[in-house]
Amino acid sequence: MKHEIPMLDQLESGPWPSFVSDLKQEAERRAKNPDNIEYQIPVDVVEDILGVLELSFKHGRTHWKHGGIVGVFGYGGGVIGRYCDQPEMFPGVAHFHTMRIAQPGGKFYTTEHLRRITDLWDFRGSGITNMHGSTGDIIFLGTTTKQLEEIFYELTHNIGQDLGGSGSNLRTPADCIGQARCEYACYDTQDLCYDLTMEYQDELHRPAFPYKFKFKFDGCPNGCVASIARADMSFIGTWKDDIKIDQEAVQAYIGGEFVPNAGAHSGRDWGAFDIQKEVIDLCPTECMWMDGKELKIDNRECTRCMHCINVMPRALRIGDERGLSIFAGAKAPILDGAQLGSLIVPFIKAEAPYTEIKENVIEPIWDWWMEEGKNRERLGELMKRQGLQKLLEMANFEPDPRMVQEPRTNPYIFWKEEEVEGGWERDINEFRKHHQR
Amino acid sequence: MEYEEAKQLIVDGLTKKQKVKSKFYFNDLAKIIDMKPREAKKLINQLVQEGVLEYWSSGSTSMYGLKGTGKQAHAEHED
To answer: Nearest Cβ partner of B59 from A83, A167, A210?
Structure first.
């Protein structure tokens, strides 16, 4: 190794996995070069990344500069300029730009595809990747400016991949595995995710938003991509009608013929399945009960929490009248703490070409946020500043009781003049007849 | 607004502020040409395509500047 890295060595003593061990392994592989790759960036890039990290630990501060002007032609996102402020000591990482590669929908790709993109990255980059970053993208960590256009050309022309979003852009939309493999999916997450990605290419690649904006798509309320906590606009599958019950299968669970949770918690012996304790008593709205040998559900009270369906997937199934709910304003805790999304559309059909979702929901909200949002203000912060009421007004949504989290916590009702009979004007003479000055 | 007129306004507006700062938010540019963001975007994109403006990104936030201005280009050997 080129640098002494005692503090990083110490990290390796922790539980598996260790990024330090991974980086050492990659550094060694690059040095030996068993595949005879004609490296286009310094061979010792990985050794220098370990070196600069050790130095940062020693100094207690970063040795990366902030941001940069680099990118590929015509795109304002997808490449993040990173430069080291100790280039003489660590020439391998003097330029160490990040590239975000849009992940395939639901993160499905073949091993052949994965090999092609990693081969390209071994050849023109550091070989270090992050599968997958928080936004979902495939992250390529570290290359030089000269390589950016070459990589972009190869990705878009020969590998069928685009760059993802970064900066004040629409970020790469992310979705769950959806109907491709999951029986809980209430809509085709992959189709909606792909459709919106293609529709909003300009928003994805050319920054004009006040700050980042994320779409995420969960096929059902289990929320495998946690859209309600992470996306400025979150799409969560739901249904309107009744949960479908197979009473025979319910009995099979009770009788122990089917394992609960599809065997997911079978690592230890939990005893015999107890439907009362494990399903009925855990229903958050208490809308289930046993009527003799029949399981009953008061579907009007169901909030589609998914618990009963998760425990007894062979007995209970999602309803047939399916669509999705839309939530707005979730974000991580940089300002004002973390926020979950607020319900703005209780139910909407998710059918291609999704015109209603685009024209009646996404675009009016973007127009409002682009005009009213301060620099670096997320949609959720604007909603807090101007109020959910304002969002509903701008998007022309009718207020709905389901948008209210807790009734009667705020005693003030702000009426507008047009909402009040007679408006603010009154006949003063008529008033004076009954009220003295 | 015509493209040339917008270009002149933006170049003049940004040049005037060069001593104080070299990177600007999208909304600053939209204000200079007094247009709504959606409409301003087309013109501003064209200015980037033509090489009058360039993007700057921290990774989380994007900004715009007149091409080649500010410390960045020289300090990072990108000029």
So the answer is: A167
A326 by DSSP, 3-state: which? strand
Q: How many C-beta atoms lie closer than 10 Å to residue A156's C-beta?
A: 13
Give A412's pLDDT tier (boundaries 50, 70, 90). Answer: confident
Chain B, nearest residue to A96 by Cα: B76
Please name the residues in contact with A293: beta carbons below 8 A apart, sequence gap of 6 or more.
Answer: A247, A251
pLDDT tens-digit series, residues B11-70? 999 999 988 899 999 999 999 999 999 889 999 999 999 999 999 999 999 999 999 887
Distance CA A134, CA A38 (A): 31
Across A186-212, average pLDDT: 97
Among all residues of chain A, which has the CA nearest to that of B65?
A: A69
This prediction has a pTM of 0.92
Tell me if the domain spanning A6-159 has CATH number 3.30.70.2500: yes
Which CATH number describes the domain made up of A174-225+324-417?
A: 3.30.413.10
What residue segments make up the domains of chain A, in order of their start? 6-159, 174-225+324-417, 244-317
Gyration radius from chain A CA atoms: 27
Compare CB distances from B72 to A69, A71, A95 and report the shortest one's residue: A69
Residues 6+ away with beta carbon under 8 Å from A1: A24, A27, A47, A50
Alpha carbon of A277 to those of A50, A272, A281, A288, B17: distances in Å?
52, 11, 5, 12, 68
